[in-house]
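Comment thread on ticket #2218

A.B. wrote:
> Attaching the input chain for the structure job we discussed in standup.
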Amino acid sequence: MAMQHSSQAHNVWQENPIAKRGKKVMALSAINRPDTGRKELLEKYKDKLAVNQNLNRAMVSFQSSKSASFYHWLKYKEAFSPAFVDYALSLFYPGQQQLTLLDPFCGTGTALTTASRHGWDSIGVELLPVGIAALRARITASQADPQALEYWLNQLEDYAATNGQRVSCYRFPHFELTEGAFPESTENDIGLYVDFLHTIDDESVRYLFWFACLTILEDVSYTRKDGQYLRWDCRAPRRVNSRFTKGDLPPFWPLILKKLTTMYQEIQNYDSVDLSEYIRIIEGSCLKKLRELPENHIDLVVTSPPYCNRYDYTRTYALELAFMGYTSSDIKTFRQELLSATVENRSKFDKLREYYESIGAGSFFNRCCNIFDNQEALHEVLGILNQARERKELNNGNIPRMVEYYFFEMNLVVSELARVLAPGGRVVMVNDNVRYHGEEVPVDLILSDFAEKAGLEVDVIWVLPRGKGNSSQQMGKYGRQELRKCVYVWRKPH
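C.D. wrote:
> Ran it. Output below, let me know if you need it in another format.
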């Protein structure tokens, strides 16, 4: 598709995701060479691909954080581990301090807090409130008074022992996605706990106690986070077409007391820095917020953007968002403002163009459009997917549109990272390749090509020793067909 910049051309872009590019792609397909663009891209970067035996899936996911103090409090599967950030810092900047790290998709802030322990300043951009809450809990914990925590933990133990039969006036602020998530007794216990929170006069303690409740909602509920959605236990008091059961749900009071005891012990043993002195949190979408950062300012970017895999974080974290007071309308807004990685996302093109033009950066935006327009491998994939959509061979006809929007927005992010990086600065990015309709989308190569055209040099594309197989939906039809899982390292020339 040629993403023209007139309103007329954009209407075409919205209605037909590949627009003018489609003719070229179909011509390739007609001569049985549907992967020409991807082969050429692989040839371009094959010497940059290198298996890194020092990396594994646990390091670049939440697995290695399950036992790490402060980091394991909230099960946030989309996070990488502190060990991964330590590895990047020790490899590229051994012993250096007073530099600045950026994570434009900071989630729970693993990169930020890890960098702070190394004496770095850090900036994180995040839209989803759940991640921000976890980061603030970690910052609050670094300042907390263990004695105050111990006092209120003892108070809570007494409260739980004497109020178990009372009926709370609190009502969990459900919206449609979360109705029926808890047994009635558990929901009442959550209400009693919230009543107790109002008695805590220490703001830091009250926040940590509130956050502890947030972290166990899934455990005491009839739900389980499962990739693209919440999986519901068949016993939930709502109509659920499921045979899944979580088994016995843990009672609320022992679990919350156990969580708070663990948090107290880890805070008591904390002997590192006050994280608030090093960390700056920018709330909002990096698609606009990165523009607020000055040029040539960032020494290192460590990040993992949402993958192009249809995962909808507004659904998987629906319980947590409801507990935080967000409504169904808020959820829909978050979904559209997040990087386009779901089939429900609408085009952000017009709004982004208007934003960049309003701040006098229209030429920058047009340059990003040109980079996108000339990425042959991407448009090859889009052409194939659109043909599959027309033949009704996709399980969701919006997949081509999602892939297109994802890469256009990531192209914009990559160009902004190139702008804010200081000369000699690096980007270290974790991402997965994906496959739809049996067609591999080489995310690593496409994004690296975007980076190069934005003025960065591709140092290396680290390939993890173990890749990733097809989704369960595609496994039966296409087999495992392992995909590369990679870490990209790009550098800004001096």
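A.B. wrote:
> Thanks. Noting for the ticket: Residues 1-32, 474-479 have pLDDT under 50 and may be disordered.
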